[in-house]
Amino acid sequence: MKLFNELSKFILHTSSKFKIDESHNIIHSMNVLHFAHNIYQQEVHIHPGLKEHRNIIYLSATLHDMCDNKYMDDDDGLYNIKKFLKTDLKYNEK
Fold first, then answer.
1. Which residues have CB under 8 Å from 82's CB, separation 6+?
2. Rounded CA gap, 77 and 94, in Å?
3. Spatial distance between the Cα atoms of 55 and 57, rounded to a whole number of angstroms
4. Does pLDDT of 94 surpass 70?
5. Domain tally for the chain?
6. Taking a C-beta distance cutoff of 8 angstroms, is the pair 36, 26 a contact?
7. Domain-located, residue 59
8. What is the pLDDT of residues 26-43, one digit of tens each?
9. Is 16 domain-assigned?
10. Would you say the C-alpha torsion 61, 1, 90, 75 has a positive or negative sign?
11. Is residue 93 part of a domain?
12. Range of the domain at 64
């Protein structure tokens, strides 16, 4: 639940800061996460090795538009995502 809460806060903050419209904001991110989860659930039975990549699949699905060049410089967006992952979620570079 902590992961979901932190992701939601980051997406809401980033969407507000960069004026990301409704086509790419929190609702879109949650829809993409839902689709990624459904695909993951189907594929993990065929490819059990996916289990170790579950978090990166979910994070990527959720954060994919938080560095979209329609709203910000790609490098700035990636920097913000990396900072969020390291600082708020305590993920390492790997």
1. none
2. 19
3. 5
4. no
5. 1
6. no
7. yes
8. 999 999 999 999 999 999
9. no
10. positive
11. no
12. 2-10+21-87
